[in-house]
Design brief:
mainly beta, about 120 residues, seven-stranded mixed beta sheet
């Protein structure tokens, strides 16, 4: 099994910054994809940013130019969030697609979520 442990959420004023981290651990042979999604109260979960092996990143239009996703050489993904807005308030979830063997089938896993609250 794989565990995704998120950290870095909290309360910040509009215009401020936060940095989220997500560390993957367990029986991982390789990670193919890591990303961040968010879910605000009463809304569906939505994509925020993703990064694939090789470093290619993709962002939701609503966060382009404000958020930056990155990944280190270990199995950790980061989300640097700048110029935060009240509408960024949500629970942020880490998601990863990984395999436990060279020819293993890809498996998707979610983290437990971390709350980000942006006050006006």
């Amino acid at each position: 099994q794989v565990q995704l442990v998120e950290s870095g959420g909290g309360l910040v004023q509009a215009g401020g910054s936060l940095r989220l981290s997500c560390a993957a651990s367990g029986s991982i042979f390789s990670i193919k994809f890591m990303g961040w999604y968010r879910q605000a109260p009463g809304k569906q979960r939505e994509l925020v940013a993703t990064i694939i092996n090789g470093g290619s990143a993709n962002y939701a239009d609503s966060v382009k130019g404000r958020f930056t996703i990155s990944r280190d050489n270990a199995n950790t993904v980061y989300l640097q969030m700048d110029s935060l807005k009240p509408e960024d308030t949500a629970v942020y979830y880490c998601y990863s697609v990984w395999s436990n063997a060279a020819n293993g089938a890809p498996i998707g896993s979610w983290g437990q979520g971390t709350q980000v609250t942006v006050s006006p």
